[in-house]
Amino acid sequence: MRLWTLHPKYLDAKGLVALWREALLAQKVLRGKTKGYRHHPQLARFKAHENPVVALAAYLREVHKEAKRRGYAFDGSKIAHRQLTVQIGETDGQLLYEWKHLRRKLKQRAPDVLASHEGVSTPDPHPIFRIITGEIREWEVVAKLSSSKKPRASKTSARLRRTSPRRKSAKSARSRSRAT
Predict the structure, then answer these.
(1) Handedness of CA 93, 29, 76, 1 (dihedral sign)
(2) Which SS3 state, helix, strand or coil, does residue 129 take?
(3) Can you give the C-alpha Rg of the chain in angstroms?
(4) Residues 124-173 pLDDT 10s
(5) CA angle, 25 as apex, 27 and 20 as ends, to 5°?
(6) 3-state helix, strand, coil in the chain (%, to 5)
(7) Which pLDDT does position 167 carry in this prediction?
(8) HSE of 37 in the Cβ direction (CA atoms, 13 Å)?
(9) Where are the domains positioned within the chain?
(10) Mean per-residue pLDDT over the chain, rounded
(11) pLDDT tens per residue, range 79-136
(12) For 29, which DSSP code?
């Protein structure tokens, strides 16, 4: 889950759709309608707001506005609250870290979108964020942005590669049925 500090105008189509889905999931988490993701670090700044659901709704409204500007049909009725203005302080260090992170993603999956932002050194923040001086936030999972080494597999991907006994038996049953 990534709830960008950056203005959604910088995202490619895939990124904007993912942001919409992830922010809706975050809204569900903050409303207590799901058990997963309750302790996700990306929710920290919304949880710190006096009314986290309202803050996330304001975030979603801006994502919806960008989607409408592009002609996408995101369902705005899924946003919990409508017309409240929210401001959350966020650091310039966090904003610039995310900018580098997004640029790396766009270089791989949408170079044309990256090229359209070529002259941007300091991006605009998402409208609910008021930028203050500071470092990358402590909740951010900092990735090495330039590394010649092959990235290590995460615990999750290692877990997914493991084959459970049930999977093994299902696989062998399929291969036996193909053989006959």
Answers:
(1) positive
(2) strand
(3) 20
(4) 999 999 999 999 999 898 876 554 444 444 444 444 444 444 444 455 45
(5) 95
(6) 55, 5, 40
(7) 45
(8) 18
(9) 8-132
(10) 84
(11) 987 667 899 999 999 999 999 999 999 999 999 999 999 999 999 999 999 999 999 9
(12) H
